[in-house]
Design a protein that fits this description.
The chain is an alpha+beta fold. It is 33% helix and 30% strand. It has four domains: 1-45, no CATH class; 56-141, Multidrug efflux transporter AcrB pore domain (Alpha-Beta Plaits); 150-203 and 290-348, Multidrug efflux transporter AcrB pore domain like (Alpha-Beta Plaits, 2-Layer Sandwich), CATH 3.30.70; 205-287, Multidrug efflux transporter AcrB TolC docking domain, DN and DC subdomains, CATH 3.30.2090. It has helices at residues 2-11, 13-30, 69-84, 114-126, 172-188, 212-217, 222-232, 259-263, 277-280, 314-328, and strands spanning 56-63, 90-98, 101-108, 140-141, 150-159, 193-200, 204-210, 236-243, 246-252, 266-270, 273-276, 281-287, 295-296, 299-300, 302-308, 334-336, 342-348. The strands form six sheets. Strands 6-15-5-17-16 form a five-stranded antiparallel β-sheet. The protein has a four-stranded antiparallel β-sheet with strand order 2-3-1-4. A hairpin with a 2-residue loop joins β8 and β9 (246-252). α5 packs across α10 (314-328). The longest helix is centred in the first third of the chain and has 18 residues, at 13-30.
Amino acid sequence: MFNRLVKYFLENRLTAFLLLIIFVVAGLVTMPFDQKIPFLPASPVPVDAIPDIGENQQIVSTEWMGRSPRDIQDQVTYPLTTALLGIPGVQTVRSTSMFGMSFIYVIFNDNVEFYWSRSRILEKLNSLPPGILPAGVQPSLGPDATALGQVFWYTLEGRDPKTGLPAGGWDPQELRAIQDFYVKYSLSEAEGVAEVASAGGFVKEYQVDLDPDALRAFNVSVKDVMHAVQSSNLDIGAETIELNNAEYLIRGLGYVKSLDDLEFSVVAVRDNTPVRIRDVARVSFGPAPRRGGLDKSGSEAVGGVVVARYRSNPYAVISNVKEKIAETEAGLPQKILPDGTVSKVTIVP
């Protein structure tokens, strides 16, 4: 058989040449590299370091900070687990409860389509009966990615823009703010990215430290202070007013923009004298409680994790992320340190 095939191609050299051209063109079209040939369409073969051989699963996470694992299990994890068991195509449901967090892993049969399973979970979460979960607790579905979707890690570091050497000068709270409000959203625009998760650093927040003696002296409860804090950070919409045949919108601006805005908020009135938050508490900026950190070479770091979308080409996603990083770095801040060194925030893979 093989000898006859060789004899056929030797006698029909044009056919052999045409087959060779077809194989070469097919190889150029499906090659998993960055070479772009203008006159050929590109359909690269997906390239991944580790093939996805995991289960067909979706993750439902719920946050209820400050609660013990027992409370999380009884009031969040168990009700959600029993509700999700009734979804068609579910093979099994696994769960774990920890301090302030609940994670439920819904395992579907292999023949269940990935995005169909996500839509069924969202329908179930949106149709939960009232009172099944504690007030203010809202479960959320994880990103449309697999367990092996973490394709790119990076850190934010202060470096000299001329030499590229580490320069420092940025505390973890500043770097985390840059990550959360700029870098994260910019990299999320890259094609094929399902999520950019922040890691490390501290989340900046307003902190109100109550003085028990002052609360007792002014006859103010903790609930009164909480209500005053919530009410002070609010814009109010009103009607319109017409002057000289022109219509003007009326708004009440009340969003907190500084510590003074929060300190001077009124908690109560005693003897026609307003009791402000600053009279019964100390208001300051501080780091939010955290459950972990990010370490790089033995030092605390701030960065993020890029998660690739389900069935996307990891090689192409990484290339898209690197292109987006080059665009993002132009807008990153820089500062001059006391020794005269310029330190610019840099995204380091």
